[in-house]
């Protein structure tokens, strides 16, 4: 997201940065003439251009991640998931310790000194401005219309008494002395909207979804351990360690857990047949309306819930890049107008004032908006999606300091959360950096965190709590998250401490679900094929053994490099890029999966290219010919 890119660009000026080796005998010599392409690269071009074309010497494990991540020595959970051995990885195992330095992040955050006097406040509809002598101050409102459009009102002069009433939820304040800007800031508030006349059940509970961008299950345990412990001890939150992303990035996974749409086809693998139906490109070009989608937020809205969407990004949930997203306001309160403001001014003008100079980070503003929303609409149920984009998106170590911030926020929301359904989840894990060269890092990238807490009285429902705990032992997909949210929206007002869950299931009549609600027994078998998880993102474990067969490795590597060059030649970036060759001396590793099992052999080739040194990997099989499955 370009909000992240903006912060990265100026990171040096920030106080905060918010942002086994065995020889396998008997391999048949494969003629180069038998090499064929079975499945082309799905999204290699994007990441190739982003990293290699710019000649950055950076490991590119972004894009198509390793779908078989075991090293043959890990413990696995067998029996629960046919065809899927779940990973058992210690978040702090030796292979990842070198990548973490919690103390560096904590010391950086605690050294911040306020450098800017925040002289304006927006409180309960009143804009207060403490102006200086000779200073003329004015404000305007930033009003979101859709995912792609924000309108601005005309500038309004702030009255002499320094207090003005305004119903705008995002206000930009600017002051000048003799034509020079003397003050520039922006604020948010939650202003209750008029009644929609939709009936609601007084027994409906609030539902709060907090999405931690790029936070894996392991990373959540590493960096936000205090917050996790508080959620478990205070709200009985239950951690699900095996949620699996269904695609690469945020938008694609949001398609699954908010729209129940499949972004990607299911490539053919030795373990599953090809399954079409991926709609990524189609979804991007469609306007998200009630006529063509079942956005889960509308399930809440149709039952009288007041709604809020808040992301620390200029983009909305689905409009990243050239995608359309919602064609109208998708919630009562859509706060992207606040973040859109920063792209109208130089960094040092507004962005630095609102964040760096007052020792605040984006998540502080997200906390405040969520707090205000929870206080609004007394007696009426509320549903919110709060997406923390910048905190962990670009950093492994930039999250530790925020543990105390999240814990304090959860403490401040104790009364509200005790009577609500609260989901803390990730969209995916970290997608770049050296840690992806480890088995743990590869798992992390496809294994976002997920926790759910129940209202206090529903925690007394032993059948429900026991069922949830049983389901923590199973593989989940983002489609299961959608099904769970849809059920909560439609049925939570009916539930009591004696409602049965282990003997029932959620089967709505108005749509066909791709996932299953985690509040009930989960159907089996549960593997990546049955859960619509493409193999290149699958966290299921397979035994991996290093293989010595240089000729096979070179043939496979050269074929993938040929594909890469063809993709670049056919792109708009061809004039900026060098022709790549296989770097035989830089990196050339070959491994085989499940070598003791009968059937088709699957291999992984890791290689580097010249001249950039960029690192890639590809999966291929040996039938009567060499078949490339995927590459990245």
From TrEMBL:
Transmembrane segment boundaries: 30-49
Keywords for the protein's UniProt record, in alphabetical order: Membrane, Transmembrane, Transmembrane helix
An annotated GO cellular component: extracellular space
Gene3D superfamilies the UniProt entry points to: Alkaline Phosphatase, subunit A
SUPFAM superfamilies: Alkaline phosphatase-like
UniProt xrefs under Pfam families: DUF229
Domain of life: Eukaryota
Transmembrane keyword on record: yes
Protein's name in the database: Sulfatase domain-containing protein
Source organism per UniProt: Bursaphelenchus xylophilus
